[in-house]
Write a structure and sequence with these properties.
Elements lengths: L16 H22 L7 H10 L5 H6 L2 H9 L6 H22 L2
Helix pairs in contact: 1-2, 1-5, 4-5
Length: about 110
């Protein structure tokens, strides 16, 4: 199946959306120029270097595969502990960042 069809946007806490978007945007804002600069000195035009920089953007494959692991581990290993709710909240924030990154970077 397609990963995009299994995304449940209801699990994203509304308060974490701006934080998640900021993380993804800052990451892309750093990665794209660095990829462009990495092609400096090659026999490429500016357009080709720009294409390479954009093509080197992450496609959120790892995020899609691993986003649910922290929550599963918290549910399995920490269900009896006092800090359980705090770790569940952090795990959901990780999932929300992963979902936002999938939506922003997937082609």
């Amino acid at each position: 199946g397609c990963v995009g069809t299994t995304l449940n946007l209801r699990v994203i806490p509304a308060s974490s959306v701006p934080y998640s978007v900021a993380i993804v945007v800052i990451g892309l804002a750093a990665r794209i120029p660095m990829a462009y600069l990495a092609t400096h000195g090659r026999s490429m035009t500016k357009h080709e270097r720009g294409f390479v920089a954009l093509s080197w953007c992450p496609k959120a494959t790892v995020q899609a595969a691993l986003a649910s692991l922290p929550l599963a581990m918290v549910n399995e290993l920490m269900a009896e502990r006092d800090e359980y709710e705090k770790y569940v909240q952090w795990s959901r924030q990780i999932i929300s960042v992963a979902i936002i990154s999938i939506l922003v970077t997937a082609p």
